[in-house]
Amino acid sequence: MNHSIKIDISTIDAHQNAAKQLIEFAKGQRVFLFDAPMGSGKTTFIKSLCSFLGVSDTMSSPTYSIVNEYDTNNTYKIFHFDLYRIKSSEELFELGFEDYLNSNHFLFIEWPDLAIPYLDSYLRIIIQSENNNRYLCAEFI
Asked: Which CATH class is domain 4-140?
């Protein structure tokens, strides 16, 4: 089994195909950690991923709400976290993070450092720029 993948996401048009490739690569893994600098396109790509998975709601960054919940046209939900403003494990658990983990729904987590110690496995996603192109690199952890 291939443990990593690199996908070109340089244009917004490439996002839908990249989302399809990422979901196929994930093989049922539902916890995705997005590790990339501010302004690198994490939220934009997550919107494309949600759209591919059947979300029809208006999507927005959970910067202030910390977590947004989206219904899909399937039986699962998507929980999109932005943990940038969370300062401690206590705050994370006050959000009910453990319940989200045990829900078997998709978790897309931006700024995931505080969550990592509580995860058994996940897909780590890095967005990087090379030669004016943007790539999404994913690996199983």
From this structure: alpha beta
For residue 34, give both structure tokens: 């997005």
Q: What angle do CA 5, 84, 79 make, to 5 degrees?
A: 65
Amino acid at 87: K
Q: Residue 4's beta-bridge partner residues?
A: 139
Q: Is the pLDDT of residue 37 over 90?
A: no
> What is the distance between the alpha carbons of residues 7 and 14, in angstroms, rounded to a whole number?
9
Locate 22 and state its tokens: 């990422």
pTM above 0.85, yes or no: yes
Give me the residue spans of the domains in the chain.
Answer: 4-140
The answer to whether the CB of 111 falls within 8 A of the CB of 83 is yes
